[in-house]
Each structure stands twice: as C-alpha cells, then as structure tokens.
Design a protein that fits this description.
- The chain has 452 residues and is of the alpha/beta class.
- 39% of the residues lie in helices and 13% in strands.
- It is built from 13 helices and 11 strands.
- Strands 1-7-6-5-4-2-3 form a 7-stranded mixed β-sheet, with helices on both faces. A 4-stranded antiparallel β-sheet has the order 8-9-11-10.
- The longest helix is centred in the C-terminal third of the chain and has 21 residues.
- The mean pLDDT is 96.
- It binds pyridoxal-5'-phosphate.
C-alpha cells in the first residue's frame, strides 16, 4: 500500500459520532456523493495530483515535507464537516478551546508559566506577528537576522516599514557574534531574530551568546524555530546545540511550525509571546463577532481574522495521541530524524567522492560532489540531483557560500562565490530505516555522473 487509507474508516466512524451531537435538528438536504459528476471531478483531481513528487515517501528526501500523521488527516477532515472558524468563539467554540490547549502544550516545551499565543497560516505569518509586536515596542529600530535566516524576515520588515539588517554568518551558517555586537553597539538594533535551525543548512544560532549580548544592549529576542523548534524534545543534540535549545524559553517571542516537524497538514504555524500582557497591542473593535462570550476570542489576539478551526483540531488530536514529551513516541521520531542525518553525514565523510562542509546540527545535511572549482562542483551537483531523481531518490539543491567549505580537506578554487550543493531534510520518521536504500541510489547516481 503506497498511500495510507485506514484513516478513512477512522473518519467514517467519527463522523457518525459527530452527527449524533446534532441529532435533535430536522434533517437538511445534503449534497450526495452518488452524483456522477462528483465521481468524475474527484477522479480528475486524483489524476491531476499524480503530477507531484512523492512527498509522502521516504525516497523523497529533499525539502521540508513531512506527511501529516493519519490522525491529523482524519481529524482535519472531520472538522471540515463543521468548518469552524477560530476567529471568535461563536464561529469555533470547541476548536478554539482545542487551539488554546494545543498551544499551551507547545508552550510547555519552552517552560513558560504564562504566555500569549495562537496558531496561524505558517511560519511567515507567525514571524510577521512577532516582528510587528517588536516594531510596536521598539519603533524605528532595526530587525537583525542572520544572512542565513529565512528570506521572509527582510521582506516582512519591509512590509511593516521597519529597517532591516542582515548579520553575517560564520563558516557553519550561524550568526557571527562579533558582527552582531558591532551592529548592537550603534544602538540601532530593536529585535534580534535568532534562528534555531536555518532553512538551508539547519544551523543553530548561539542563544547563550546572544543572551550575553542582551545583558549589555536593549533588544527584543525573537527565536525563529519554525523548522527547528520540535528538536527541543530530542535527546541526541550536540551539547552546543542543546545549550541553545535549553535557552529558547528566554526569548520574548517564538515561532514554531506544526506543519513542518509537527505532523500537520499545511496551514499550521504558531506564534508565542512570553508576556501575556502584549494582547493589549492587538486591541480592536469587531462589533459583529465577539458577542457570544466574555472569554478570550482568539481573533482578539491575532492579526488574521478567519482561521481554520480544523487546523487546531488536527493538531490537538495529534498531540493527544503523541504528547510532546522527551523520550515519548513523538520525541523519539524527532531523535530518529537527527540520527538519520548523523549517519548520513558519516557515510558522506567516509566516501572520497563527496565534499561535506560541516556536520548537521539538526536533520538537514548538505554536501557536494568533489571537484576542483566551485563551478565544476555546482555542475556536478545538478547532474547528481537529476541522476538520483531518475532513480526515484528526490533530493534538493541549494546555493551555499564557498567559504562554508573552508573546513574540507581539499581547497576549492573559488571561480564563483557560491556552490550549488545537494541538500536533504531527513525529517520523515522512516528515514533512518531507509538510509541504506537512499545511500545505494545516491551511489548509483554518483557512478553515472562519474565524479572524478
Ligand atoms: C526557519 C524558517 N522560518 C520561516 C519559514 C517560513 O515558513 P512558512 O513556509 O511556513 O511560511 C521557514 C520555512 O521553511 C523556515 O525554515
């Protein structure tokens, strides 16, 4: 079986239960699925959807794409029969409560006693909110994020009309502390964005060092843990990386995306603030929505208005099944991803065909075929990528500065300033077990390309 289908039965049974909750109402007429046109269109949809890389399969080891857990899929679908809107309690009574509980469980990973937070469309929307709050509190001051931070930080800053500066990185893709200190000395910094797991290489900015700078300079600390946040549960990080993850709770705001490592369908990001009093910044009038209850409506503390209650229901169900605890089933899945990256990195470094700039800090591995010049390496990366894809192994490509390769045994002739590299995010729970197979295909691709 390629695609999991057992959740369909789960869904069917749960729909019966849901329906019984509304049994006192007279029956409405419903769209029936025995209409031939529905069958035709649905079949067309399935055929159209065949035009995709196999994101659900372990041989897809490219971008950050992790299939939702079957419980998330079933719970999301179930909720769409109600289609709750988590803007206000009249639109999504049960799902708003489930969102508050789900968000509180995520907060538990970072050890806060109080918080303000909610789900949203994804990492970009969540970061936008965090930077918007930073701008309210430090108007006119710069947002500082590393040159390896997600590209949306500079774009969000420009959308918000806030000045932005990119802080240079060291040769492992982490924010350079000297460079950060130099900018902070000018007094222009208002918010430092620390990325605990960059999108390109999974590099982790040093929170111990950034927090030391916060003792000297006045800035907000925002942690973009959109991709990396769930590694807080992993027991197999290096001591250096663990030290940063242990300090995420010292941030003023955090972004973590359940739709990346949290087994959720797309459309599930999360923004958290340590100071619950910041809700006052969101104050607005909405005369037509907040009338059913004096309890907190999530729309009162979020920038978006309508939001899918189904996303909260799916997340709640997933965490009910797989609570966010260290050593628990979900925590072990995260550890497996990290272990897959460590083992993959080991294989690469022991094979003379490959150049590896540095060891993975989380579960993203970057590497490139060995050659003399940056251009030759880049051309070979593209060819290996194509040859692997032809054999059903789907990797990703990324451009990295040549200086990232300064630790490799062989010096590279820098005839251009970046190198096109191969990249894998080994984030599927099955990746560790599939590593030998992935390696075999990669080796065949390398043989075909005849890496010198
Ligand atoms: C570190 C980081 N921040 C932000 C984002 C943006 O998240 P989204 O694509 O959910 O908007 C990403 C996406 O990969 C990311 O890796």
């Amino acid at each position: 079986m390629m695609l999991e289908k057992e959740s369909l039965e789960l869904l069917g049974n749960a729909l019966e239960t849901l329906e019984r909750g509304f049994g006192t109402l007279p029956e409405p007429s419903v769209l029936t699925s025995d209409d031939d046109r529905l069958v035709t269109v649905m079949n067309e949809v399935a055929l159209r959807m065949q035009n995709n890389y196999p994101y659900f399969h372990p041989q897809y080891a490219g971008q950050m794409l992790k299939p939702p857990h079957p419980i998330a899929r079933a719970a999301y679908a179930l909720a769409t029969w109600i289609n709750p809107n988590n803007h206000a309690l009249d639109g999504g009574r049960a799902s708003s409560q489930m969102e508050k509980e789900a968000v509180a469980q995520i907060v538990g990973m970072f050890g806060w006693r109080e918080h303000l937070g909610h789900l949203c469309g994804g990492g970009t929307m969540a970061n936008l909110e965090a930077l918007w709050v930073a701008g309210q509190l430090h108007p006119g001051k710069k947002i500082l994020a590393s040159d390896q931070a997600h590209y949306t930080h500079s774009r969000i800053s420009s959308v918000l009309g806030m000045p932005f500066a990119a802080v240079p990185t060291d040769n492992r893709g982490r924010m350079d502390m000297q460079a950060l200190a130099t900018i902070l000395k000018t007094g222009e910094g208002g918010c430092v964005v620390a990325t605990t797991g960059t999108t390109g290489t999974g590099s982790v900015d040093s929170l111990p060092e950034i927090l030391r700078l916060r003792e000297q300079y006045d800035f907000r600390l925002h942690v973009d843990a959109a991709y990396g946040g769930y590694f807080s549960l992993a027991g197999n990080l290096t001591p250096e990386v663990r030290a940063s993850f242990d300090l995420i709770g010292k941030a003023d705001s955090i972004v973590i995306d359940p739709h990346k490592h949290g087994l959720q369908p797309y459309g599930c990001g999360c923004v958290l603030f340590r100071d619950a009093g910041l809700g006052a910044l969101y104050k607005h009038e909405s005369p037509f929505t907040y009338f059913t209850s004096s309890e907190l409506h999530l729309g009162e503390i979020s920038l978006e208005c309508s939001r899918p209650g189904a996303a909260a229901v799916a997340l709640w169900a997933t965490m009910r099944l797989l609570p966010l605890i260290r050593g628990g089933e979900f925590g072990l899945m995260i550890e497996n991803s990290r272990e897959a990256a460590v083992q993959f990195h080991q294989r690469l470094t022991q094979d003379p065909r490959w150049l590896v700039p540095f060891a993975p800090e989380l579960d993203i591995v970057v590497w490139a075929p060995r050659a003399r010049t940056a251009s030759q390496i880049s051309a070979l990366s593209q060819r290996v990528f194509d040859a692997a894809a032809k054999r059903g192994l789907h990797l990703a490509l990324t451009r990295l500065p040549v200086r990232f390769f300064s630790q490799t045994p062989q010096a590279i002739e820098p005839d251009r300033d970046n190198i096109l590299c191969l990249r894998s995010v080994l984030m599927k729970p099955e990746h560790l077990a599939w590593l030998p197979r992935l390696w075999e295909i990669l080796s065949q691709a390398a043989d075909e390309v005849a890496i010198p």
